[in-house]
TrEMBL record:
Name of this protein: SAM-dependent methyltransferase
Entry-linked CDD domains: AdoMet_MTases
PANTHER family recorded: METHYLTRANSFERASE (PTHR42912)
UniProt keyword Transferase, yes or no: yes
InterPro entries: Methyltransf_Superfamily, SAM-dependent_MTases_sf
Keyword terms of this UniProt record: Methyltransferase, Transferase
Organism for this UniProt entry: Catenuloplanes nepalensis
GO biological process, one term: methylation
Keyword Methyltransferase listed: yes
GO molecular function, one term: methyltransferase activity
Length: 305
């Protein structure tokens, strides 16, 4: 079993290269979210983006993350084609490297300022970034044509191909490619929250499994802390192996909802378990196959900041 981040990314790139963006919403997410008033949602490991698109169509502001560039690029394009670009923020993140900080972008989206606010990470210990070129370009009405950046050229020539290609396709206003030193950790975990209790009303982790090393408990615990009071964390795990699953290991172990809850070890005065069960259902695979599967469902609500 390979364990590098590069191998994990390559595996999921190959997995999603043969799949179209969108698709059916996961039924348990629809069951939980349908009665809720739209708010801000986070889709962890969004994959083909069926859940993200469904939530956006219901009026949610959705942030979707996945390790696969292919999945993210296709989701952005699909959301734009459906007229949902203003409700969907799709970003590539390797959650094994840390939980991203979405606060500024979420705040901007809620205020209708997503197209005017760009949040970036800078190492201020290396010096104050020079924003003069961007400010001057904005004053001249050229912000959409000018990108001023800081790069350590001693580390090599930056790769501008993605941004250049996006500009050529008229997608510069929809694509943000950024450089982060993940070896330094996730900046979002080093700063206090900008508001008590986090920023999301709903966080969905649907079949958040991988064959590669991932501190899943840390990711899910951090997700629980990213909820606003009253917000819900929905964790749906496989409880059985479907014929179309990438995981066909007959010895695979699937944690029960109660064991997942125990591993999170959340303070019961701040989080409540609303549901922990293992329903069976008839499922339809990507190719139209059908099978009876078991889902391990854990629904957690944040009750206070």
């Amino acid at each position: 079993m390979v364990t590098t981040a590069e191998d994990a990314a390559a595996f999921w790139e190959k997995h999603y290269r043969g799949r179209q963006a969108g698709g059916r919403v996961n039924p348990l997410l629809a069951e939980v979210a349908a009665p809720l008033p739209p708010g801000t949602a986070l889709d962890l490991g969004c994959g083909a983006g069926g859940d993200t698109i469904w939530l956006a169509r219901q009026g949610w502001q959705v942030t979707a993350v996945d390790i696969a560039h292919t999945a993210i690029d296709r989701l952005r394009t699909h959301a734009a084609e459906l007229g949902l670009a203003d409700r969907v923020t799709a970003e590539r993140h390797d959650l094994a490297a840390g939980f991203p900080d979405f606060r500024l972008r979420v705040d901007a989206a809620e205020l209708g300022l997503a197209d005017r606010v760009e949040g970036e990470r800078h190492d201020l210990a290396a010096g104050l970034p020079d924003f003069r070129l961007r400010t001057h370009a904005a004053g001249l009405g050229l912000a959409d044509r000018v990108a001023g950046e800081r790069d350590d050229l001693a580390a090599g020539l930056p790769d501008f191909r993605l941004r250049t290609h996006a500009a050529e396709l008229g997608l510069a206003d929809r694509v943000a490619a950024e450089r982060d030193d993940l070896a330094a950790g996730s900046p979002g975990l080093r700063r206090p929250a900008s508001r008590p209790g986090g920023m999301f009303d709903l966080i969905s982790a649907q079949y958040f499994h991988t064959r590669f090393p991932l501190d899943r408990t840390r990711v899910l615990r951090t997700a629980a802390s990213a909820l606003r009071p009253g917000g819900l964390l929905l964790i749906v795990d496989h409880g059985s192996i479907a014929p179309w699953s990438w995981n066909q290991d007959p010895d695979a172990h699937f944690p029960t909802p109660t064991s997942v809850a125990a591993s999170l070890d959340l303070d019961p005065t701040g989080w409540s378990i609303l549901r922990a069960d293992m329903p069976r259902r008839r499922a339809i695979g990507p190719g139209g196959q059908t099978a009876t599967v078991t889902d391990n469902v854990l629904l957690i609500q944040r009750t206070r900041a």
